[in-house]
Amino acid sequence: MAKTHISFNLNGRPVDVLAEPRELLIHVLREQLAHTGPHIGCETSHCGACTVDLNGRSVKSCTVLAVQAQGGNVLTVEGLATNGTLHPLQEEFMQQHGLQCGFCTPGMLVRAYRFLQENPNPSEEEIRTGMSGNICRCTGYQNIVKAVQHAAKRLQAAGGK
Amino acid sequence: MATTAERVEREAKLEGVGCARKRKEDPRFIQGKGNYVDDLKLPGTVFGVVVRSPYAHARIKSINKDKALKLPGVLAVLTANDLKPLKLHWMPTLAGDVQAVLADEKVCFQYQEVAMVIAENRYIAADGADLVEVEYEELPAVVDPHKALEPNAPVIRDDIKDKKEAGQGPRRHHNHIFTWEVGDKAGTDKVFQSAEVTVKQAMVNPRVHPCPLETCGCVASFDKVRGELTVYMTSQAPHVIRTVVSLLSGLPESKIRVVSPDIGGGFGNKVGVYPGYVCAIVASIVLGRPVKWIETRIENLATTAFARDYHLVGELAADKNGRIKALRVNVIADHGAFNSHAQPTKWPAGLFSICTGSYDIPVAHVKVDGVYTNKAPGGVAYRCSFRVTEAVHLIERMIDVLAQKLNVDKAEIRMRNFIKREQFPYTSALGWQYDSGDYHTALKKVLDAVNYPALRKEQEEKRKRGELMGIGLCTFTEIVGAGPTKACDILGIGMFDSAEIRVHPTGSVIARMGTITQGQGHATTYAQIIASELGLPSENIQIEEGDTSTAPYGLGTYGSRSTPVGGAATAMAARKIRDKARKIAAHLLEVPEGDLEWDIDRFKVKGVPGQEKTMKEIAWAAYNNVPEGMEMGLEAVDYYDPPNFTYPFGAYLAVVDIDRYTGETKVRRFYALDDCGTRINPMIIEGQIHGGLTEAFAVAMGQKLEFDEGGNLLSNSLMDYFVPTAAETPKWELDHTVTKSPHHPIGAKGVAESPHVGGIPCLNNAVVDAFAHLGVTDMEMPHTAYSVWKTIHKLGLDKR
Amino acid sequence: MEVKLEKSFPIAAPAAAAWRLLSDIKSMAECMPGAQITEQVDATHYNGQVNVKLGPASAAFKGTLELQSVDAAKREIHILGKGTDAKGGSAASMDLRAAIRDAGDGRCELAGTSTVTVSGKLASFAGRMMAQVSDQILQQFGANFAQRAQALADGAGAAPAAGMAAPPRELNAFALLWGVIVAFIKGLFGRKNPTAR
Q1: Among the ranges given (B235-239, B620-624, C174-178), the one the predictor scored with the smallest mean pLDDT
Q2: Are residue A61 and residue A31 in the same domain, yes or no?
Q3: How far apart are CA C46 and CA C63, in angstroms?
Q4: What is the pLDDT of residues B48-98, one digit of tens each?
Q5: What residue spans of chain A are helical by DSSP H?
Q6: What are phi and psi of A71, to 5 degrees?
Q7: What's the confidence (pLDDT) of residue C176?
Q8: Can B528 be counted among the known catalytic residues?
Q9: What is the distance between the alpha carbons of residues A45 and B494, in angstroms, rounded to a whole number?
C-alpha cells in the first residue's frame, strides 16, 4: 500500500513519518516514533489507554488515523514534564497513589492535563465525569480523583499554568 | 542510652513495615517509561495474528492457506497440521485435561484458535488472517451446563468421548469432567432430617472476565545459533510457564528464559498457558525471528481465562434461634470446552470448601460437578484465590436467606454464628485450619461506624412509603497464600515461593523473588520487609522479579500469595542474613553472640552503651573481616513452604437505593473493614482495596459474559462488557483491624483479593435486601437496571 | 442468536395476484433487500445470495433455498433458507412460512412467521440489534412485496413495474439503521411510559 508523508509536532518537536493511509496514530507513535507511553487497551475508544492530546483536544489515538495528525500538534505523556521537572499531575499521581499497574496512567495523565485546562477548578463530580473516558482496572479511581484535585490546586496556585 | 525520639527517627528512616512509603515503581510509569510486552521492539520482529472460529461448535472441513500465503509480507500460516509433527497441536492443561493449541478437526467454542498467520507487521498479519479460508460444518452447541448433562446433549469433546476419566476422577456422561466431594455426607443428611429449620436456595455466579487493561501477549525469540529461547510475556507465573514450555518443546529449562516485564494488570487472567503463546514460540523457532503476538480486546474477553460460571444450590439446617447446624452444597461448574483451569492440581473446585465461611458450622458436605460446554476454557481468574468468591457468595447469601426465614436481623444472625476469637486456630467442618480471626470485633466496629440501627430504621420507614433501600452485609473469611506443598502443587511442583537477598558492601541490597508484580507494588513492599528485618533503608533496596534467568524459582503471583508466601520467604531469607550478621558483629565487638541484642538497625552489646555495630558496618565487614572459618559475603536464599494458608477476613456493609420505576441502583455507602494481619504499607493496602471493591462493583452490578443459545459471545468488547468508569464507581470508606497470622514470619495475611471476594456478596446482598420484605431471597447478578427492574415489575412495584 | 418474527402486510391487490408473486420464488426472494436468486437447481431448490452490512460486521451469505411445501389452495408456502458467509465468518438460516389471505374488495394480506438464526461474527457483533434489524428487513420486504404484487395486478407482468426501484444489491445499512432508530424512538414515545405521569 502506498505510504503518505506525514509531518506534525510531537511534544513540541517536528517529526516526519511515512505511513499507510489506514495506519492508526497509536501505531505510528509507538512503533515508528518510539513513544510507547500511550497504550492500546481496547481498540474501540472505550478505555482511553491510548489518549493523547491532538491540537488541544483529548483524542483516543487508537481510532485516529495517523494522517489526521498532519500539520498538527500531538502531546503524549512523554511531553508532560518540562526540562526534567515533572508536571504537577505526574507528581500528584505519585503522591496520592493514583496508579498501580501503570498501564492506564499515560492516558489518564494526558486526559487530566487537558481536563484541567477545560475546567481548572473542578468539583469531584466534574472530575469523575471529565475523566470517564479513561478506564482504570486497578485503583478504583478514588486516588486518581484525589490526584487530579491536588494537581488542580497546585496549578491554580502556580497561576493556572 | 538511645532516647526514644532517636530510636523513632532511626526506625522512620528505614521506611520499613507499616510505613505508607511512596511507590518505587511510579516514576517510570508516570513518565511513559513502563516496559510492557507490546512496548518491546526486538530487531527483526514479525507479528502473529490468530485466525479464530466464528462458531461455537463446528467441524473443520478444510483450511485453505493459499491466498494468505500469496499476500506479500506473509511469512507463514500455522495450523494444527503443521503442529502435529511436533506433537504440539494439543497441550496438557494444569487440570489433567488436554487443550487444542490449534483446532484439530473440530472447534468447541466461539473464537477458538484455528490458525496463526505470521507476517512482517501487524497490518499484513491481519490482512493475511482474513484471507485464510476455513470451511466449517456447524454443529449444535450447548452453553448451559445443565443442558450439557442431558442424555442426548451434543458431544463436545470427541477426543475423549469414550474415556471414563479426564484427569480428575471418574466421569459419568460425555460432557461430565469430574465429581469432587468433601465433608461428611451421612452426618450432614442426618442433621437436615431432624433440623428445626432448613432453607434452600439456588443461585448463580455468572461467567465474567477479569479484563485487565493490558491484554495477554508475548514476544518469543529463538536464537538458532545458540539454541536458546527467550519469551517475554504477560505472565503471572513465569517460572511455571518455563517448566511447561520445557516439557512441551523438549528444550532444557536452562535454554529457556521467560521474562515477565511490566504487566498491565492480571487479576488471574495471565496465569494460564494460551495457544497464542505456543504458536508464537513455534513460529519463532521455525522462522528464527522474534514473533510478537498481542491479543485484541475481543480475543481477550472471548478466549483467555474467564471466571466463575458456578451454578450453586445451598442448604442450611439450623435451630429456631438461627444457630446453624449443617451446610449442604451442590454445584454445577461450567469449565468450558477444555478443563484448563489454572489452580492447584489436586483441587478441581479450587478452595471452594472454604464455604463454611466465618461461621461455626458443625457439619457440612459439598459436591461439585465439572461440566464441558461450548464456551471458552481456562477459568478461576479474577482477583480470587481459587473459587473463594463463589464460596463466600454462597454462605453469605445462605445466611441472609436463613435470617429472612427466621425474621432475625442479618447482623444479629452473623453474630450468633461467628467462630469466636478463642476458638482459633479453628478447624472447619470441611477440614481447613483457620489461623486467626476476630469476627465479632470487626462486625461490631462496622455496625457502630455506620450507625446500623439508624439505617435499619430508615429502611423500615422507606418501605412503608414504598421506597426501595437495601442494606447488605458480608462478613467473609478468605483462604489465601497457596500453599502448603503437602496440599498444593502445580504439575507436581509444590506451591512454595522464594527470595534471594544479597547485601552489598556499602549496605545497599538487591533482592529477587519468584513472584511477579502486576501493579501490587512489590518493589515497594518487599523492600519494606527487608528494611525492617535488616535495618537497612528501603530506599537502597532494589527488588527484581519476573526473569527466570535471574530470579529464584517461584510459583508466581495470584491467589493473594505474594505476601503470605513470597513475603514470608523474604523475611526468612533476611533473617538468615541477620543471623550471619550477628556472628560478624560478635566477631567485630569481640563478645559472645549471646551478649548481643538487635536494635532496629544494629547489634548492641547488652548493657554496654556505645558498644554496637550497625548493619551498614557489618555489611562492609562481611566482605573483608569475618570470623575465621566463615565464608565472605552477605546473602541468603529462602524457599518458603508455608505451614498453612492464611485467612484474611473482613466485615463489609453496603447501602443501596433503588429507583422503583427504573430499577436503577445507586450505591449510597460502602463501608469496608479489612483484617489482613500485619499491614506492610497502608497506602498500598488501601489502593488494593479500592481496586478490588471497584471490580466487585463491576461484577455485582454489570458484568457478564453473555452467550446466545448458539454459543455466540454477545459481550465481546467494551461496548457490551461493563467496565466501570470514574463516573459510575462509588466512593469507598475503609477501615481495618489487625489480627496477625500466627504462622507467618511477620504476621501478614495478604489483602488484594478480599475486597473482590467480599464486595460482590455484599452488594448482591444489599440489592436483594431491598426486596427481602417482599419475600425475595435471590436475584441473579449482575444487577443492571433492567435486571432489577424485572424483579420490580414482577412484584408489581412499578405501578403508579 | 435466534429471532422469531410474526408480521402481516396489507396489499392493495387481489389475493390471486399476490399468490402468483409469492409462489414465484425468484421474484419473491428479490423482494428481500440484498437478496438474489442466482440459480434454480431443481423444482424445489434454488441457490442465492444475500449481502448484509451491519455495524462492524459484514457478510455475503451464499446459500440454498429449499421449498418445503406449497399449498396453492390455502395459498401457503414454507421455505427454508440456509447460507454461510463466503469468508466463513457467519452463518444464517431462515425458516419462513407465509400465506396470502383474502381481505375481500380486491385486497389481501401477506401474513408470515419467520425464525431467523444467525451464528458467528454477525451474531457476536450485531446480536444486540438483531431483533430490530430483522424487523426492518421484513418491513422492507413487505413494502417491496406489496408494491410488486400491486404492479402484477395492474398487469405489468412478473417483471418489475416501470419506475419501480430495482431491489438494492446490498442491504442498506444506513437506511436500516435509520429505520431501527426511528422505530426505537417511536417505541419510546408511543409506549405508555410509566415514569412520565
Answers
A1: C174-178
A2: yes
A3: 8
A4: 999 999 999 999 999 999 999 999 999 999 999 999 999 999 999 988 999
A5: 25-27, 88-95, 105-118, 124-130, 142-157
A6: 70, 5
A7: 58
A8: no
A9: 43
Range of the structural domain that residue A8 is part of: 4-79
Residue B215: CA atoms inside 13 Å, Cβ hemisphere, count? 25
Tell if the CB–CB gap between B717 and A42 is shorter than 8 Å: yes
Cell of B699: 461484577
Bigger pLDDT: B711 vs C154: B711
Of the candidates A34, A78, A141, the beta carbon closest to that of B31 is on: A78
pLDDT band at C122 (very low <50, low <70, confident <90, very high): confident
CA atoms within 13 A on the CB side of B594: 0
Q: Are B710 and C123 an interchain contact pair (Cβ–Cβ within 8 Å)?
A: yes
Residue B328 known to be catalytic: no
The single-letter DSSP state of residue B307 is B
Residues A49 and A104 in one domain: no
Is the CB of residue B762 less than 8 Å from the CB of residue B472? Answer: yes
Which of A44, A78, A103 is nearest residue B213 as measured by Cβ atoms? Answer: A103
Give the E-state strand segments of B431-508 in sequence order.
433-434, 468-477, 489-490, 493-494, 497-503
At A57, which helix (H) or strand (E)?
strand A57-60
What residues make up the domain containing C97?
2-185
CA distance C34 to C138: 12
- pTM, to two decimals: 0.93
pLDDT digits (tens, 9 = 90+) for B565-613: 999 999 999 999 999 999 999 999 999 999 999 999 999 999 999 999 9
Average pLDDT rounded to a whole number, residues B29-35: 97
The partner residue sitting opposite B110, judged by closest CB among C84, C124, C128, is C124
- Render pLDDT for B93-128 as a digit per residue (tens, 0 to 9): 988 999 999 999 999 999 999 999 999 999 999 999
Q: Which residues pair with B77 in a beta bridge?
A: B117
| Inter-chain residue contact C124 with B720, CB threshold 8 Å | no
Find the helix or strand (DSSP H, E) in which B608 lies.
none
What is the predicted pLDDT for the residue at C54?
64
Domains of chain B: 4-34+497-640 (3.30.365.10), 37-139+215-263+271-303 (3.90.1170.50), 310-482+644-794 (3.30.365.10)
For B166-211, write each residue's pLDDT tens digit. Answer: 889 999 999 999 999 999 999 999 999 999 999 999 999 999 999 9
The A residues from 12 to 51 touching B (CB cutoff 8 Å) are 20, 22-23, 27, 30-31, 34-44, 46-47, 49
Query: Taking the mean position of all CA atoms in its chain, how far away is CA B600?
Result: 35
Verify whether residue B289 is a known catalytic residue.
Answer: no
Please tell me the distance in Å from A81's CA to the nearest CA on chain B: 8
State the Cα–Cα distance between residues B417 and B181, nearest whole angstrom: 24
> In this complex, how many residue pairs, one in chain A and one in chain B, have their CB atoms less than 8 Å apart?
178
Is the Cβ pair B708, C90 closer than 8 Å?
no
Indicate which residue of B168, B236, B343, B404 is catalytic: B236
B396 is catalytic: no
* Largest interatomic CA distance in chain C: 60
